[in-house]
Amino acid sequence: MTKPASRYLPSTIHRITINGCDVRYLRAGSGIPVVFVHTLRTQLDMFLQVIERLDTTQAEVIAIDAVEALLEQLHLHNTVFVGESIGASIGLILAARGNPRIARVLAVNPYDYGRWGGARRSSPLNNVVFTTILWPVLGPIVARAGTKRLLRLVLAGGLHDRRNLAPALADEIARCGRLPGHARAFRSLCLQWRSWLSARTQYCQVSVPVTLVYGDKDWSHPAERDANARAIPGARLVTLHATGHFASLEKPHEIAGLIQAVT
Known about the structure:
Radius of gyration: 17 Å
Order of helices and strands: EEEHEHEHEHHHHHHEHEHH
Number of helices: 12
Oligomer: single chain
């Protein structure tokens, strides 16, 4: 199902250099800052349908392709941190470490489970891709390989309804994946899978309000979701019906509603 073009691109896209890296971010609106951090192998475009549904006269939205240093560079305070997948795990870790710029976390399908990373649970294809990408010699080849069709199949493993992946979005993600250094950086992140699991031991230190949001068809198991809810003091647990791992693509109106409720 094809989605309409967003009014936020490209006029609200900015670039900034952080630690020698060129970082892209979207910034629009005014009010309480709401920072969006996306999943592995994707980009800020994943949140455009959610952003379209927010009242940007009440909230300033910032969707970014890198995290902690940018919060400081943009001088953000009292931030609502909205993370999906690994972005959700990053938000919880920053909150656990007492980052003073974060006031609340909306963690959507945090990616902190599964041997070698939970994406292997999504499909036989993804099991092969996300296993071999870790191997020496072959791993860098796998990270660089892939056609648009293959990428669409990989991304579709994160959806309950594959029609929710717009062809234009898949094409843009494929284009960015061919940029110099992207494949190497993606593989480097995948190699850190142990740190995602170990991060859960810090969740008990979170002291800001947290809403945990899971799609009922997410790759995580119910016991893993419940364990996170118990570990995070005072966490609110929300389940989205007929929703996979990429909830911002499948239920953007519900994610927007949860954000609006806390801003």
